[in-house]
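## retry 2 of 3
previous attempt timed out at serialization; input unchanged, resubmitting
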Amino acid sequence: MSRLAASFFLATALVAQAPSLKPGLKLGDACPPFSLPGTDGKAHGPASPLPLMVVFLSTECPYVLATQARINAYAKQYAGKVTVLAINANDVDTHAKESLADMQAQAKAQGFVFPYLKDAPQVTTRAFGAVCTPDFFLFDRGRKLVYRGRLDDSWRDAAQVKVRDLDAATEALLAGRPVAAEQPPSRGCSIKWK
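## retry succeeded, writing output
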């Protein structure tokens, strides 16, 4: 992809800060029920005795590509303490590289340790009110939303991260402390709706 094409892609794909764009779930809301097919050939949903973190991903979004290793590291760090599920809802008819086969290739190349699910009808994604990729939702054991915000303060460069917002929220939740009310919104590419 040429530099000009990449710049155009970024300019047209960028959504996001979401305070004004935060439709859907609000803090304290229940996790919507769902069962979606994964890249592993199995259906997955929110049933688990552990807290749950759901993240909306893409196979092409530069924001996801820059953070997917950190998201996988989060899943490894909290294995056995937090269930992690990723969902891709991008429309395959307009974005062919968002197919389940491309998701499988992404998951394999990255060594994802969490289920990666396809929401082809986009019903689950609309119920969450996700607006961009990546978009993070952390639920307590009772499946009430306690955090909706960014992964950290440097999506582009892991070496520049100074504030790990999702980690801080997760640590507070696991320790039984209140999760900070200030939750900077995630930034990313718009979800490609049907």
